[in-house]
Amino acid sequence: MRNATLSELQGLNRLSVREREVLSLAVSGHIDKEIASRLGVSANTIRTYWSRIRSKVGDLPRTGLAAVYIERSVTERIGNMVPGCEWDADVFIASVGQELRIPLNSIIGFTGIMLMDMVGPISEEQRKQLTMVQQSSKALLALLNDVVDITRLEAGTIETSQARFDIMSIAKEVASHFQAAAQSKGLGISVSGPGRLMIVSDRWRVRQVVSNLVNNAIKFSDKGNVEIDVSAEDDGAWISVSDTGIGIEASDISRLFQPFFQIHREGHPKEGSGLGLYLARRIADVLEGKILVQSCVGKGSTFAFWLPAKPWRVPE
Amino acid sequence: MKRILVIEDNGANLYLTEFILAHAGFEILKATSGEQGVEVALAERPDLILMDIQLPGIDGLEATRRIRGAEGGKDLVIVAITSFAMTGDREAALKAGCNGYLEKPINPETFLSDVKAYL
Fold this sequence. Notes:
Distance between the termini of chain A: 41 Å
Number of strands of chain A: 7
Strand content of chain A: 5-15%
Strand content of chain B: 15-25%
Oligomer: heterodimer
C-alpha cells in the first residue's frame, strides 16, 4: 500500500468531530451498523458521513482511508512530543499559556490604571508611550489565546459544551461589547433577526466566532454600519456579519482563512495575530457549521456563519 | 465602607487589585494562600471575596468549598478570578460555590464596575 499523499493528510485535518469518530471506529474494526448504534444515528447517516469523509480526504476505499488515518495518527504522535519533554505539545503550550497570563495581568493592569489617571497626572508623551505598551500587551494576550486554542483544536483535545441558548442574545451581547470600538471609528453597529432563535451548541465558541467576525468588520471599515443579522433556515441558523468597508480582492478570498494571512493596508500598522479567521473556521468545523464569505472591493463584505440546529452529539 | 477580601498569591497582581479597589474607596483585606483566605473570610466576614483560582497549597475552588462548608460560610459573596483556560472552568467555579467569576488578566477599564456588580 502506498503512503498517504499530502492532500489526503490535510483532508484529514478538515474532518469534523463526528467524521473523525466514524473513521476512528471503523479503523478499530467496527462495521457501519455498530458505528451507527454507537453514535445513536441511522446506518444511512453513517453512509452520508463516509461520502463526506471521501470528499475531504479523497475517493479511497475504506482500507485506503484507514491507512491515511493510521499514518496520520502515528506521525502526529511522534511529531506532537516536544523534544526532551514528557508532555504532548498541546498540553505544554496550554500550560505555558496559563503561566504567561500572570505577568500579562501586571503589564495590562498597571499600564491601564496609569492611563486612567489613577496614579497621578501623566505627560502627553508618557501617555503616548504607555498606550503603545498597552496595545502591544493586548496583542500579545490575543496571540497567546489564539495559539492555545489552535493547538488544542489541532490536537483534537478542545472541549466544547452543549446547551440550548438564544442566538439573538449572543448577537446582542457582541454588538454591545463592540459598541464603543465601532463608535470611535464613526461606525454604527446593529442587530436584526427574530425576537428569539434557540439552538443547541457551545455558546462561548459561537460568541467567539461572531466576535471575531465583528472585530474584522470594524477593523476594515471606515464608514457606514456593521450589521449582525440572524435568521433560521431549514435545519440550521445563519449569523451574518456585513460591513460597508474596503472589501476583499477576489485573489485574497481563497487565502483568507489561512493561518497568519493578513490583509495589508497602506498606512495601517499590522494588527492582531492573523489567526482569527483560521481559528474561527476551525471552531465552525468542530461545531459542525461553516463560514462563507462574499465581498466586493470598495463596497463591503459579508461573512456568514451557519450552525446546525439539531444537537450534534448523541442526546441523553 | 465596604470591605473586600482579596485572595491572591502573586505579589504584583495583589498590589494591582488592592490599588484599584482602595482608589475606589474600599477597605482591603488580603490573603496570599487558600488556607489563609478561608481563615480570614470566616473570621472577618467581608462584603465580598475575590478568590484567585490558581493558588499554592489548596486552590481557589477548594478554598471556596471549605468556606461554604463552614458555619456562616453560606452567606458570603465569593467571586472567582480565573483564566478560563479550559471549557468547564466557569461551571467548576459555580459548582464549587462561587457566586460568579471574572476573567484573568483583568481588564482595568471594567474591573471596578464588574466588582461593584457583586456588592
